[in-house]
Amino acid sequence: MHQKLEAAAALAQAHETPWPRDPAAAPAPGQQPWGVHHDDPPPYNRLFGPVHARGPQSGVVWQHGRERFAWGEPERADLTFSVAKTYLALLAGVAEAQGLLPDLDRPVHRQLPGIGFDDSAHNRAVTWAQLLTQTSEWEGSCFGLPDTVDRWRKVAQDPRAAGGPKGGARPLQSPGSYWEYNDVRINQLALALLHLFRAPLPAVFLDQMLHAAGGGAGFAWRGYDDAWIDLPGVGRVQSVPGGSHWGGGVSISARDQARIGQCMLELQRGRRSGPIRASWIDAMAEPSPVAPFYGRLVWLNRGGRNFPGASERAMMMLGAGGHTVWVDPVLDAVVVLRWLDAASAPAVIRQIAAALQDG
Q1: Which residues have C-beta within 8 Å of that of residue 56, sequence separation ≥ 6?
Q2: What distance separates the 2 farthest-apart alpha carbons in the chain?
Q3: Looking at the structure, do residues 225 and 300 belong to the same domain, yes or no?
Q4: Residues paired with residue 76 on neighbouring β-strands, in sequence order
Q5: Which of 50, 151, 177, 242 has a Cα at 20 to 30 A from 220?
Q6: 191, 204: one domain
Q7: For bias kind Low complexity, which ranges apply (predicted)?
Q8: Are 194 and 200 in contact (CB under 8 A)?
């Protein structure tokens, strides 16, 4: 196994993401601009929150609860982009276990009036379940960013054909009937969870997930510069985004990402008690009827087509810039890949899968 993992790590390190390591640096020949915000229509093609320099291509491989291999800088806390979406799903699982989310099919506005879900008949129909599967079709602006900026967005893992130009005026569908990868709607979910917990989401995640898993060093979850609200009875609190599309987001080490994935496996198999029910982890991995390649803010591999080499029960957390957290209950494994060129990710996953099958 060691030799196969060593070869997979060498392949990954030879194909680091083409982004500069410094977000402020101009791309060198053969590189791409840092981030994804520059693809948005103006005036939204800029950063709204802080970012920081990154480390090298890195990774860790765990199986049967033990670290089998690591490379690069696995202790470095780096931005992880849309992997943070799955962290929102885990926070929703904490809320469900605490009795704060008794009914996912309940319209959000009935529980949380006055935060953008009761301003139209369309938005009043939006449920928690739809927000967690990216099928809400919520319409509006969240901290200066309109949902329209991410309409018609096409991401590499979406098997459907592109429908129109990003940011175009795609007609809205009824909530629950259409899947779209939309970061503004994810940020609206984060705002709703902040109101639900009545506490900063970074503190809840650190206490309920990371500290419980034995990690947390260097962890940060930052919001946009103007994403502050006055929460009645609590005070001034920053709402955080579910990624780093426009800056901010989660900074975390590869090993802490592996700890979170391992916690998910152990909760799912009943090997530990924790802040989330096993049934919630199972539900995260259930295909959405509208988008069977997607669950509750995780990418799925049913049929083995999306991520060849991984099992059909694998859950994938993905982030721009080359971030993958692969949680595989069949292989009893967690794999974290950071700053890997997306074009090389399938080959690296296949090589790691072949090594894990020996274990």
Answers
A1: 13, 16, 21, 72, 73, 339
A2: 59
A3: yes
A4: none
A5: 151
A6: no
A7: 1-35
A8: yes
Tell me the pLDDT tens digit for each residue of 82-99.
999 999 999 999 999 999
Host domain of residue 280 = 2-81+200-356
**Could you tell me the mean pLDDT of each successive run of 10 residues in the chain, 359 residues long?**
94 98 95 95 97 98 97 98 98 98 98 97 98 98 97 88 83 97 98 98 97 94 98 95 98 98 93 89 97 98 94 98 98 98 97 91
Instruction: Write out the H or E segment, with its range, that includes residue 186.
Output: helix 183-197
Q: Measuring CA to CA, which residue among 293, 268, 269 is closest to residue 281?
A: 268
Type of residue at 197 = F
| φ, ψ of residue 134 in degrees (nearest 5) | 60, 35
Q: Are 228 and 237 in contact (CB under 8 A)?
A: yes
> What digits encode the pLDDT tens for the residues 23-77?
999 999 999 999 999 999 999 999 999 999 999 999 999 999 999 999 999 999 9
Residue 89 covered by a domain: no
pLDDT at 67: 98
Question: pLDDT tens for residues 263-282?
Answer: 999 999 888 778 999 999 99
Instruction: Please confirm whether the linkage preceding 175 is cis (ω < 30° from 0).
Output: no
Is residue 354 packed enough to be buried (19+ CB in 10 Å), middle (13-18) or exposed (0-12)? middle
Q: Residue 230: inside a domain, yes or no?
A: yes
What is the reported pLDDT for 359?
67
Q: Would 87 be classed as within a structural domain? A: no
Residues 190 and 177 in one domain: yes
Residues facing 58 on adjacent strands:
338
Residue 85 token pair: 């979406």
Question: What is the rounded radius of gyration, in angstroms, for the C-alpha atoms of the chain?
Answer: 19
Domain count, the chain: 2
Tokens for 145? 């960013």
pTM as predicted? 0.97
Are 273 and 235 in contact by the 8 Å Cβ rule? The answer is: no
Peptide bond into 43 cis (omega under 30): yes
